[in-house]
Amino acid sequence: MRAEANRGEAHPLTFERSIQILACAFVVSSDCAELVAALEERTQRAPQDFPVSRTYRFEVHRAGATGYRIEEAGRPTEHRDDPGNAAEALFWRMHELSLEALPEYTKIHAGCADWRGRRFVIAGRARAGKTTLMTRMLFEGFQVHSDDIVLLREGEALPYPRRFWTRAESVALLPQIAPLLMRKHPVRDHFSLDPRELGFQWQITSAPVSAVLFLEPRHGGETRITPCPKYRMANLIMSQSLLPAAGARDWIRDVLGMLDISSCLLLECGSLDSAVKALKNTLELQSRLGDKADE
Fold it and tell me: Which domains does the chain show, CATH number per domain?
């Protein structure tokens, strides 16, 4: 959206973008429409049921031959040589601040989705295929909330609102997204995707977890979902998480609190088709068992 031009400046800050990332509201003003457009390509538009407690203001000025000057709260912080690089620097700074604003949460390297009203988390090591699987699940009736970061506190999972970052080599496995990507440009070796651009609802809310899965790739093999002992799952989740500010005691409380009320499963993923089918069957069974237990 446009803000009023600041009178008397050689380059008025005519363009403005407001962004919420959980507890943080960011206002970015610039004299360059191209920079604001580049930032738009990187930021999400998910509605978020989370109270804002901090507001940060950034200004980005064209600085002649030196490129773009970024100011945070009126203080110069960085220079970048083009609008794309300036937008990238802003993007990572905003996410740094938004995670710092929630020090009481355990951060898990995981995706988060709902199936028929029940939340589940899929954790896994880097390049295990979480984003590819979570993106495919969008087209299979799942409500997918995040692909890479989940914030955990007192047994509830809060998806972290960031665009899905799909590796270029994964696009061949996701023909459903090809029409959108034909109109977009890759950021380095990744594409950024907002589920709303693909026609899906994307609402960020916190909820209890009914199932926790750990993803292991089995390229060319058979997809299998098998029970995992809670002690083993605790070790796996902790290997893919960061402690809250309060330290190990709250870390253990958060992880064990989630696992105590969840089914723990290993997901060995052969193909996307078989993984989606196995997930639906397993989660449907979990849902029926849960409904009976609630009766």
Answer: 15-100 (no CATH), 106-294 (3.40.50)
Q: Is 273 helix (H, G, I), strand (E, B) or coil?
A: helix
Residue 282 phi, psi dihedral angles, 5° rounding: -70, -45
CB atoms within 10 A of CB 116: 15
* Contact in structure between 221 and 268 (CB atoms under 8 Å): yes
The alpha carbon of residue 54 and the mean position of all alpha carbons in its chain are separated, in whole angstroms, by: 20
CA distances (Å), origin 225, targets 97, 196, 213, 264: 37, 30, 9, 10
DSSP string of 125-164?
-TTSSHHHHHHHHHTTT-EEEESSEEEEETTEEEE----E
Asked if the model's pLDDT at residue 279 lies above 60, the reply is yes
Torsions phi, psi of 196, nearest 5?
-65, -30
208-217 residue pLDDT tens: 999 999 999 9
Looking at the DSSP bridge assignments, the partners of residue 209 are 119
As a whole number of angstroms, the distance between CA 250 and CA 107 comes to: 12
CA distance 289 to 185: 45
